Amino acid sequence: MPFGLGMGELVIILVIVTVVFGATKLPQLGDGFGKAIRNFKRSIESTDAKDEEEKAKLETKADPKSKTD
């Protein structure tokens, strides 16, 4: 189980969350949490792609063979 929690602990946490937020708010909370995770993954992937592009540009500038003088 995730984080070393058993099934009993997960059920207790789910019951507490349901009592605190109410059954009608749980789908909205799940949707918001899912969107946040997707946006986070996109930002990480785009940052990695930008870093690779910048690294490639620096390598071509530093490579004397790529100059055509």
Structure, described:
By secondary structure, the protein is mostly helical. It is 75% helix and 0% strand. The chain has 2 helices and no strands. The protein has helices at residues 7-21, 26-62. The longest helix is centred in the middle third of the chain and has 37 residues, at 26-62. It starts with 6 loop residues before the first helix and ends in a 7-residue tail after the last helix. The relative contact order is 0.05. The model has no long low-confidence stretch (mean pLDDT 81).
Question: How large is the radius of gyration?
Answer: 23 Å
Helix residue percentage: over 70%
Q: Overall pLDDT, averaged?
A: 81
Pick out the low-confidence regions.
none
Q: How does the major sheet shape up?
A: none
What is the H/E order? HH
Compute the number of helices.
2
Given the helix and strand composition, which structural class is it? mainly alpha
Beta-strand content estimate: under 5%
Count of beta strands: 0
Shape: elongated
Q: What's the N-to-C terminus distance?
A: 62 Å
Architecture blueprint of SSEs:
Elements lengths: L6 H15 L4 H37 L7
